[in-house]
Design brief:
The chain is mainly beta. Helices cover about 0% and strands about 40% of the residues. The strands form 2 sheets. It has a 3-stranded antiparallel sheet, with no helix packed on it. A 3-stranded antiparallel sheet has the order 3-2-4, with no helix packed on it. Strand 2 and strand 3 form a beta hairpin. It starts with a strand and ends in a 26-residue tail after the last strand.
């Protein structure tokens, strides 16, 4: 991930298929998402804090790459993050709650 000068990542979350906060490890250039199945799709939410700029103005504030590591490294996808400013600022959502616990099930009465 490449950010404009002065920008910082507030959070990066995987929201599908499972919910997970992604954390950047010291000394690593990015965020690890783990292995994927060939036809698997995932969805992520990214929040970037940026320096103030004029109302109504929009800027590209980040470039995000999905990279396969290993013996056959490749860039699989890339995109840009566009930020806009308006008077109606909406605060980012709170951290994700933990998923509900799945307890043992009973087969009694079946």
């Amino acid at each position: 991930m490449q950010l404009v000068s002065g920008a910082t990542v507030r959070f990066l979350r995987q929201s599908r298929p499972g919910r997970e906060e992604l954390v950047r490890r010291d000394g690593e250039p990015g965020y690890r998402t783990g292995g994927w199945a060939a036809a698997q799709a995932r969805e992520f939410h990214l929040c970037v804090a940026v320096p103030a700029f004029a109302d109504g103005q929009k800027r590209v504030v980040a470039r995000v790459l999905l990279v396969r590591l290993g013996t056959d490294p490749a860039t699989l996808a890339e995109g840009t993050v566009l930020a806009g400013r308006s008077e109606g600022f909406i605060a980012p959502p709170p951290p994700l709650p933990p998923p509900p616990a799945i307890g043992p099930t009973s087969s009694a009465g079946l």
